[in-house]
Amino acid sequence: MALETWNSVLRSGLLFVLCTYTLIAGSRDSIRLLGGASDKEGFVQVNVRGVWKAICRTEWDALDALVVCRELGFADGYVQVWREGILSRGYHANNSLVTVTPTPTPHYSIEGNEFACNGTENSLLSCKYNRASSYCIGHAGVACGVTTKEYGALLADSLSTHGGRYVDYTVPTFSGKSTGRVLSPDLNSYQPVYKADRVHVTGGVCNMDKMAAMLICGDQGYPNGGKVIHLPPIPNLPKLIHTLTCIGATRLWECDVVYTEEGLCPDGVQYNSVECYTKLQPSVFGSLAFLGVASILILIAGAFGVSRILRKPKTLSVPHPESHEHS
C-alpha cells in the first residue's frame, strides 16, 4: 500500500515537472531573434504551430519592438528598430565609400505585417496585424537593451551625418481611435545612412505645441487637425525629440526641432501625444457659420443699396421766388 502511494506521488510529480517544462519551453520558443551580433538584436521570428515565420517590416515601429523585447524577457534598456542592410554600397559622413554586406538569412515564410501594438502587450501575436501578402519589403527586426549612453552615441552620429533637419512622424492609433503617441519612426527616413550599423534611431516626443498637433494630424489624414494631449510614458521607449515647435509653420519640415541627448526628458514628459479631430470642431464650425451669415447680410445690404440707387427719385414742388414778389 505504501509502495503504491509512493508510485502515485512520483508519477504526479513527474507529470508536474513535464508540464512545467513544456510551458516554459513553449513560452521561451514562441519568439526569437536571428542574424544579429548578439542575442539582443536581429530579425524577429515567431513560432506558429511549430513553424518559424518572419515578420514583414511594413509599418513596423518602436511600439511593436517593445512588445518583442518584453516577450523575450529583456526588461532593461531602450528598444530600437533593427534592420538589414538595404543597399550594398553607400557613403559615410567623410564621403569615403563603404561596402555593407548584409548577413544572408535563410528563407522563411511571412506570418504577417502592419502590426499595431500599443506597446503594453505581452506577446507579439496578441497585437492586431494583417496576414502576410504576396509581397514583403523586408523583415522586421529589433534591438533590445540599448543603454542611454549607446542611444546618445547613435543619436549624435545620425545628427552629425545629416543634421536631423528632416524628421518623419507617425501616430499609431488603435481600435478605431484617433488618439495616440507621436513617434519618429526613423530619424534617417528621408536621408538614410547606409552603414554597417543596423540600429535605426527612433523614439517619442517630450513636448510639442498646438500647431504641431494640427500639422501632424493633417499628415495622418485628418484634415480637421487635432490637439496636443498627455499620455503616460511607456518604459523602455526613449524620447528622440525634446521640443517640437511649429508656431508660424505650414509644413512639418518648417518646425523647430530640439533633440534629446540620451533619450531622456529633463523637464519631464508633457505633451507627447495628439488627439486628431474626426469632424469639424464647434469653434471652427462657429467661425465658418459666422462668416457665412456675415456674407449673407453683406449681400442683402448690397442688394438693398443697389435698389435704392436705381429707384427714380421723387420731384419736390418748390415755389418759384418770383411768385412771392408779384403777390
Automatic annotation (TrEMBL):
Claim: Zinc is one of the keywords in the record: no
Keywords: Disulfide bond, Glycoprotein, Membrane, Repeat, Signal, Transmembrane, Transmembrane helix
Chain ranges of the SRCR domain: 31-145
Record-linked SUPFAM superfamilies: SRCR-like
Disulfide pattern: 117-127
Sequence intervals crossing the membrane: 284-306
Keyword Glycoprotein: yes
InterPro entries per the UniProt record, alphabetical: SRCR, SRCR-like_dom_sf
A GO CC annotation given for this chain: membrane
The name this protein goes by in its record: SRCR domain-containing protein
Annotated source species: Strongylocentrotus purpuratus
